[in-house]
Amino acid sequence: MPFPAGLTDRPLTRDDLPAVAALYAAAEQVDDTGEHHDAHDLAEYWFAPYVEAEHDVRVVLDGADVGAVGATVAPPTFRDAYAVHLDGRVHPARRGDGIGRALLDWQVDRGRAIHAARHPEAPGRLTVLAQATIAGQEGLLRRAGFAPARWFQQMSRPLTGLPEPRTVEGVQLVPFEWARDEQVRHAHNAAFTEHYGSSERDRTSWEAMFTGQRAFRPDLSVLAVGDGDVLGYVLAYVHDADTAATGEVDAYYGQIGVVPAARGRGLSKAVIAAALAAASAAGCASASLEVDTDNVSDAQCLYEAMGFRVRRTQVSWSVQLAPQGWPTSRVRAWSLWISSHRRGWTPGWPPAPTGRSSRCTPTTTSAPSSTSSSRRPGCGRAG
C-alpha cells in the first residue's frame, strides 16, 4: 500500500542517522523496550558489510522530518533457513496514519527479493521481533501474514549479592584476549549448532555483529580455557546510549555458550559468576541478557538460578519462504510441516514477567547454557 499523502520515502543516508536516533528516542518514551540507540549504533547496524543500505533501509519523511524508518537485513550465513530480519519504528506522533502498514509492505517485498536474489535454493524466513509493549504491532503483523514463532525474555539482575566464584578442574577463567578471538568464534559456532535461528558465523559477520562492535567490552568478557582451547565464554557489551538514557552502566551479555564436549561440568555457572564479578568490580550497576524460552539447554532456568529475573517479553514473528523452483505439491507439504512444528500460541502465553518461572526446578538449573542475541535493529535475536 502507498504511504499517506504528503509523505515521501527514500533510502537512508549517513546524514539521516542523528534524526533517526532522535526518532528511536522519542519512540522509546512510549514503547518502553529497554533499548536505546545513538547515531553511532545505527551506523554499525545499517552500514555493516552485508547490508546494502541504499536498497535495504528506507526513511519516511514528513517534510524535512524523519517520521519513520524501516530496515530489511539479512546476515550472510544460515543453517535451517535464510533469515531476513525486518525492523523499523514510526514516530509516536505519526502512528495510526497507515505508515507502519505501508512500511511493512515494502519490507516484505524487499525481504522476498533478497531471498530470491541471494539464496533462492534454500528455505527462507522473514522475521520481525515484536515488543510486547508496542501497541498495535501484533495486529499489524497478523494482517500481513506473520505468525508467532518464538518467545524471548529480557532478563536482568543488580550486581549485589553476587553468586560465589566457582572453579572447574583443569579450566582457567580469564578475561577475553584478542589473540583468542578466532577460537571464541569457533567455540560459539559449535555451541549453537542446535539453536533456533543460529548460523555458522563467518569472520565478517562475527566482527560486524559481535566482537567488532563499539559496545564490546573485552575486559568484562570471560573465557573458560582448558588445554589451550576455549570451552566456554561470556561476551559482554556496554551500550553508551543505554548509559546516557538511564544514568547507570549495564553489562549486557550478548553471547553465552559452552562447547558440547565440555558440558555437564558446571562451566556455565562458572563463567557467568566470573563475568558478574568483573562487571561489579568495573562499577556496573546491573547485568542483563536475553533468552529464548524454548532454548534447547533450558538456559532460562540457569539464569534464574544465577539471580536474573524476567523484565520484558519479545515475540519473534515469521513468514516462511519456500525455495524457488519447488513444485506446488512440495511447497504445500513443506508449509504443513512448518505449521505443525511451530509452537502454537495460546491465550495467556507468554507468561507475565513476574519473576521465577514455574517450570524451573532445582533439577534443571545445572543445564548447560547457550544464549546469543545481537541487540541490533534489523537483526532480530540472531545467534
Write a concise keyword list for the protein shown above:
383 residues, alpha+beta, Aminopeptidase, 2 domains, 13-stranded mixed beta sheet, 11 helices
Describe the structure.
By secondary structure, the chain is an alpha+beta fold. It is globular. Strands 1, 2, 3, 4, 5, 6, 7, 8, 9, 10, 11, 12 and 13 form a 13-stranded mixed sheet that branches. Strand 10 (250-258), helix 9 and strand 11 (286-292) form a beta-alpha-beta unit. Helix 1 (17-31) crosses helix 2 (39-46). The model is unreliable at 343-358 and 362-368 (pLDDT under 50). The protein has two domains: 7-121, Aminopeptidase (3-Layer(aba) Sandwich), CATH 3.40.630.30; 155-317 and 345-372, Gcn5-related N-acetyltransferase (GNAT) (Aminopeptidase). It is built from eleven helices and 13 strands.
Mind sketching the topology for me?
Layout: E1 7-11, H1 17-31, H2 39-46, H3 53-56, E2 57-62, E3 65-73, E4 82-90, H4 99-118, E5 124-131, H5 137-143, E6 147-158, E7 172-175, H6 181-191, H7 203-211, E8 222-226, E9 229-237, H8 240-246, E10 250-258, H9 267-281, E11 286-292, H10 299-305, E12 309-321, H11 328-341, E13 371-372
Parallel strand pairs: 4-5, 10-11
Antiparallel strand pairs: 1-2, 2-3, 3-4, 5-12, 6-11, 6-12, 7-8, 8-9, 9-10, 10-13
Helix pairs in contact: 1-2
InterPro entries: Acyl_CoA_acyltransferase, Bact_Acetyltransf, GNAT_dom
GO molecular function, one term: acyltransferase activity, transferring groups other than amino-acyl groups
Domain N-acetyltransferase: 7-169, 171-326
